[in-house]
Write a structure and sequence with these properties.
With about 180 residues, this protein is α+β, with helices and mostly antiparallel strands. The chain is about 35% helix and about 30% strand. A five-stranded mixed barrel has the order 1-2-3-5-4.
Amino acid sequence: MSSSIGDLKLGVEMQGVYAVKNKKLLPFRDGSEFFLALTLSDKTGQVQGRVWEQVEEVSNCCVVGDVVKVTGLVSEYNGAAQIILYSITVCNDENLDMECFLPSTEVSVKSVWEEWLNITSSLKNPYLQSLLTVMVKDKGFMEGIAKHRRLSETIMPSQVVYGSTAGILLQQQKDWQEYILK
């Protein structure tokens, strides 16, 4: 019954552990009451969640960036899956692997890193080659770039930041290389 977002099936009751990416109290169309709209995420994607009952109580139990255990029913709204949430509990487990809540790629960090080094070493401009090599070896620089690239308020471990940033910089470096070699 525990589900990753990528495995959710319409009409099926589910439970899962996700990061809270966004949270808003929104009024009903008639303005009479409020519902809670959440964006939940894991490494396979994100999904909208809705709480219709005990809204204020549930809203006070978690904040953006928390990891929560939820139960609910997967439904469809405007052509997209959403979860009608029955319960939400904050996970205080210190052993949670935060990588489980970050978007990921099937490409290994090692292969991205090796390709980065190959491209960098193939540059004809020694100053640019040196600059790019120094940049990626500077952990503080890489973490600084990652802070600007985060998709949510979720705090990411530095090794994950470093690996995901290498992929971002690899694409940027390919773009730079094409520009420079023209």
